[in-house]
Amino acid sequence: NAGVTQTPKFQVLKTGQSMTLQCAQDMNHNSMYWYRQDPGMGLRLIYYSASEGTTDKGEVPNGYNVSRLNKREFSLRLESAAPSQTSVYFCASTQREGGSPLHFGNGTRLTVT
Amino acid sequence: AQKITQTQPGMFVQEKEAVTLDCTYDTSDQSYGLFWYKQPSSGEMIFLIYQGSYDEQNATEGRYSLNFQKARKSANLVISASQLGDSAMYFCAMREPFLYSGGGADGLTFGKGTHLIIQP
C-alpha cells in the first residue's frame, strides 16, 4: 500500500533557485494538501486542493505555487527559493468526510542556503 | 489567538505509567472534528484517534483514548500503560468547515505539539 508518495526526500537549494515537490496518492481521495513543519511551530497549511481542478491558499502561501495535475497528483513549486523556506514539507490527502483523517507522505526536508 | 493550544512542550514519563497530553481548542463552529497524530523521530505523521463534536462517547483506539470536554473546549489524549515506543511528538489538530476563504477544504489546524519521552 503506497498511500501518499512524496519526492524528493531531501533537497538542498541555493537562494533564488526553483524546484517542484511532487506528491501522488493512490487512495482515490478528493482533497490534497501541502503543509510545512518548522521547529516549535507545528504544521502550517500552505495550499490545498478540495477537488481536481481547484486549488486555494492556506495559512502561509507566499512564495509558493501549486498544481493539481489530476486526481492523484498535487505539486508544490518554489519559484525563487529563500532561506525562510527551509523546512520539512508534507503532502497529505483525505476523503473529506467527517472523521476521515489526513494521510501524510513521509515528508521532504528542504534546505535553502 | 491560537486555534489549538498544547501547553506541554515536553514531558517525561516512566514506562508503564498512564500519560495525559493536553489540548484546548478555539472555535465558534458547532460542527468540528479533533484529531491526534504521533510523529516519531523518523518523521512520519501517524493518525491515532478522532473525536467528532457531536460524538456522545469519548473516542478510544486500543491504548489511546480521548478525554473530550466540550464545554471546556478540551480534547486531551490519554495513553494507558506507556511503552518506550510511545516516545515521539504528539500533535492535536482540528478540522472546521470553511476554514479558509476558498471554503470546504476541511484542512486541519495543528497545535505546536508535545514532545513525549518515556523513560525505562
Shape designation of chain B: globular
Number of helices of chain A: 0
Q: What kind of assembly state do the chains in view correspond to?
A: heterodimer
Largest sheet of chain A, if any? 7 strands, mixed
Helical/strand content category of chain B: mainly beta
N-to-C series of helices and strands of chain B: EEEEEEEEEEEE
Tell me the β content of chain A: over 45%
Structure description:
The complex is a heterodimer of chains A (113) and B (120). The N and C termini of chain A lie far apart (35 Å). Chain A has strands spanning 4-7, 10-13, 19-25, 31-38, 42-49, 56-57, 65-68, 74-78, 87-94, 103-104, 108-112. Chain A is built from no helices and eleven strands. Chain A is mostly beta strands. In chain A, the strands form two sheets. In chain A, strands 2, 4, 5, 6, 9, 10 and 11 form a seven-stranded mixed beta sheet that branches. Chain B has 120 residues and is an all-beta fold. The radius of gyration of chain B is 14 Å and the shape is globular. In chain B, strand 7 (60-61) and strand 8 form a beta hairpin. Chains A and B meet through strand 4, strand 5, strand 6, strand 9 and strand 10 of A and strand 6 and strand 11 of B.
